[in-house]
Input
Amino acid sequence: MAENIIELRDLTKKYGSFTAVDQLNLTIREGEIFGLLGPNGAGKTTTILMMLGLTDPTSGSVRVCGIDSTSSPTEVKKKVGYLPENVGFYEDMTGLQNLVFTGRLNAVTGNEAMEKAEELLEKVGLTEHSGKKTLKYSRGMLQRLGLADVLIKNPEIIILDEPTLGIDPAGVREFLDLIVRLSREQGITVLFCSHHLHQVQQVCDRVGIFVEGRLLASGDIQTLSENLFSGSPYTVEVGLRNPPQGYHDQNSARWLRDLLGNIEGVGKVSLNYGKYIVECRRDVAEEIAARVVEAGAGLNYLNKKEYGLDDIYHRYFEGRGNNE
Amino acid sequence: MTATVKKRKKLWKADEVVHPFRVIVHKEISDQVNSWRFIILLFIIGLTCFGSMYTALTNIGSAVQANDQEGNFLFLKLYTISDGTLPSFFVFISFLGPLLGISLGFDTVNSEQTKGTLSRLMSQPIHRDYLINAKFVSALTVISVLFFALGFLFMGLGIIITGLPPTPEEFWRVVFFILVSILYVAFWLNLAILFSVIFRQPATSALACIAVWLFLTVFYNLIVNLIAKAIAPSAMASTHQVFRYQEIIMTLMKILPGELYSDATTTILMPSVRSLGPLTMEQIVGAVPGPLPLGQSLLLVWPQLTGLIAATVFCFVLSYVTFMRREIRSR
Ligand SMILES: Nc1ncnc2c1ncn2[C@@H]1O[C@H](COP(=O)(O)OP(=O)(O)OP(=O)(O)O)[C@@H](O)[C@H]1O
Ligand SMILES: [Mg+2]
Output
């Protein structure tokens, strides 16, 4: 069994009367890629700052690699590489010089730092820009340099706060690939913070959904969707060329509901951008197709949908909206 | 290939593990020295230095004739005399010192914050105080080198032009003068660092520093004068009361860092200064007019030095405490 490398216990952070992080309990296992997913202002950055001892928690404890981050931040920072959102570099130094500077702050000799920096610049695809002052770097180039900067200390854990911001699509793919490769090859634990569902879904072993300072759910995507959609785990999208006369929009959804009504396991039917969404408790796509064709409604689209993070995310927000 | 070799050579102590603190200090010093700000300051200070040198040299002749008891400290006169058109060297330094300290320190922490480098730096395994300590040490190093260079340059030019060699005592007095000047700039530097921790915008902290400077040099005197008028004893008051009154006003006037500095440098550069407070007739009667030895002069300025050091340490501790518990977000 993998060890818990990051452990948060009842972690709370208050700014005056405002609670940014509320009684957070979270464990991250060694070697996994964990995605922390949440909307703006959820408290992701605040949580990370507490992990690094850059701000003190109001109550609760943070242990990273078994070390308390609040009382001995320096020890933690030896093992953790942090890429802040909006990373900045010394503008009158070149990319290489910036990296070497960081390397030397981690008690590495100048020559070693230089070698390592050149190697990392190659890895993140900045070799040809290594001699350029970072003042002249583009946003995405800065972000790549940021990743190199995080890796130069040979971290056991890397924490990335919105790392793909400003990188072009091809760059994002490379970036994510690189992260996955590092994690798999060198056993680095990754905490990936984002509100990009698809990127998180692509790379993360487990995700935590974080809203208003509270962790709503955590686990791998499979488990999350099973828990969430236990009522109707399957969805079939149906497209009709000629819905029956006299039925318009919402009414035609009711017509379809009636048509499919006696198939066992069919639940709600709704119309969404010209497609009918049929929620069902078991896999009934075949029967639905048969019924629709029989009724002569001109079946032109049928899609059995699997749940992704997108749906999980939206489902949570729906739930939240209803509670308020 | 050659390019890499060249780059490697430029690195400082490339095959040793250097303590992170020294790495930061090294980087900060090279940043300071390479910045435009420093070049401009150097230009201003060089100019004033030569200006006051010029006035001192043209007026040294008359200074010798008018002089009676300080004739043997002629060399020190180079630093203190003026003909009224341009201030003397030490007055210039007392005026430029705050400017130097403020301009080297006002954006210490907040510029790192606005550039987004602070959170990256603070996520390295270094203690938080390394940053402000290193910035302080590097600015102070730069200032010290600058002041010693200028002070000795002044001395060398003086020797060449007047043909007078300084006596050992004069030499040490000049060294102490330079040390006190560095201490004075260190105070302003720390004040500027404090404001750079408190205010998020470099412009705000620069403005705050200048406000404090203006207050201390211009408005403080006004306020003390108002107080003096308000609490002035009546014409019938006893000598004791008048003396007490004088003492209070003097203390209020002399507590300023600028006053502390100018008192200290006056005493060090003019050996005939015997006291910095009001003297009674009893104290003056029977005193043998003559210059004080260096040790006695230093003893005389001891309170001033302690005051300056205390003010410096106070600012430092305040910025330290503020910074240590601060939350560090990027930008
Ligand atoms: N210094 C502060 N004082 C008061 N409230 C703050 C402070 N810093 C952050 N907050 C609040 O704490 C909450 C969490 O902020 P945080 O930066 O952690 O969000 P986030 O999840 O990182 O959002 P984003 O996705 O936009 O980066 C926000 O509502 C924010 O307004
Ligand atoms: Mg954030």
Notes: The pocket of adenosine-5'-triphosphate (ligand 1) is lined by residues A 15, 18, 20, 38, 40-46, 85, 195 (CB under 6 Å).
